[in-house]
Specification:
By secondary structure, the protein is an alpha+beta fold. The protein folds into 2 domains: 31-177, no CATH class; 189-303, Nuclear Transport Factor 2, Chain: A. Helix content is 29%, strand content 26%. It has a 7-stranded mixed sheet. A hairpin with a 5-residue loop joins strand 11 (286-291) and strand 12 (297-303). The N and C termini lie close together (12 Å).
Length: 310
């Protein structure tokens, strides 16, 4: 649905990849990757959330699976995976993923990534104690994927632990995040111009314009200190060069950039989205810059313009 630290590591990676895609910058359905296991959601301490109101069987992009139609064997496998992972993390041993996970997950959720997330997860939720199954959902856009939601008990809160299986029953996604009844993240809130940080807006405009002008000139440089470490790691000169041809073919040469509006991401406290309308030789796409609570660039996209923020 931020650093959440202020933005998840994967969010930065997807943001960078989004430079050459018009897909919504969220976790891919087939290979959701890692979210909470990389960094805990920046919503502070997890609040005690009472379990569910009667819910609708459909929740936006997801469909709830009736209890009597849940694959018990796979549910138990998902629970075993989550419990084993959390217990090993709490003991400082850190699990090495095997054939129970997709290649994408094994690549993403390395022992090193787990170690990097350890301190932040404990700061947000404390120490893991117990786990209880809550519900299962299907991903409407990817019918082969199944989401298993567990309500965990930590010493400082009761967050969600979410395990996603692909059609073969392999773990393709894993999150630790504050519990919310709805799977769909809170909608971003459009900021009145009086509430927009003008300095950050102008800095974001300059960041995007400078990046696009360098790209047009064939110059691909490392991002500076105004970007998060994750963004600097994700949007390397090599990645910039790889996406250049695709963006050039789709939108043409960059010409100019105009500010349009700003949004606050309610799911990621402190994060602000600045939307710009680009003028290119072949169209007028959106150029989007996200800033975290520290004012650092934590996301960057170039995508076809849509009136509503997606």
């Amino acid at each position: 649905m931020t650093r959440l630290h202020s933005v998840f590591l994967l969010s930065a990676l997807i943001g960078a990849a989004g430079c050459g895609s018009d897909e919504t910058p969220r976790q891919p359905a087939a290979e959701p990757g890692v979210d909470r296991a990389v960094a805990p959601e920046p919503a502070g301490k997890a609040e005690e959330v009472k379990r569910p109101r009667p819910v609708s069987t459909r929740d936006g992009r997801f469909t709830r699976i009736p209890p009597d139609r849940i694959d018990t064997e796979r549910r138990e496998a998902a629970e075993s995976f989550a419990r084993r992972y959390e217990q090993s993390r709490a003991q400082g041993t850190f699990a090495i993923l095997g054939d129970e996970a997709t290649e994408g997950m094994r690549t993403s959720l390395t022992v090193q990534k787990q170690k990097e997330a350890q301190q932040e997860i404990e700061a947000a939720f404390g120490t893991f104690e117990a786990l209880a199954f809550a519900e299962a959902w299907k991903v409407n856009a990817s019918p082969g994927s199944t989401i298993y939601r567990f309500r965990a008990t930590f010493t400082e809160g009761r967050p969600e632990i979410r395990v996603v299986h692909d059609e073969r029953g392999r773990v393709s996604g894993f999150w630790i995040k504050p519990w919310r009844d709805s799977l769909d993240p809170p909608r971003p809130r459009k900021l009145p111009e009086s509430q927009v940080n003008q300095a950050l807006r102008d800095a974001s405009l300059e960041f995007a314009r400078s990046y696009l002008e360098r790209r047009t000139a064939g110059v691909f440089e490392p991002l500076g200190r105004q970007a998060t470490e994750e963004m600097r790691t994700a949007l390397t000169p090599e990645v910039q060069q790889q996406t250049h041809a695709e963006l050039q073919a789709r939108f043409g040469e960059f010409q100019s950039l105009d500010y349009v509006e700003a949004y606050r991401l309610e799911s990621v406290p402190g994060n602000t989205v600045f939307r710009f309308r680009g003028t290119f030789g072949k169209g007028r796409p959106e150029v989007r810059v996200t800033r975290n609570a520290d004012g650092l660039v934590s996301g960057f996209w170039i995508k076809p313009w849509r009136q509503d923020l997606d």
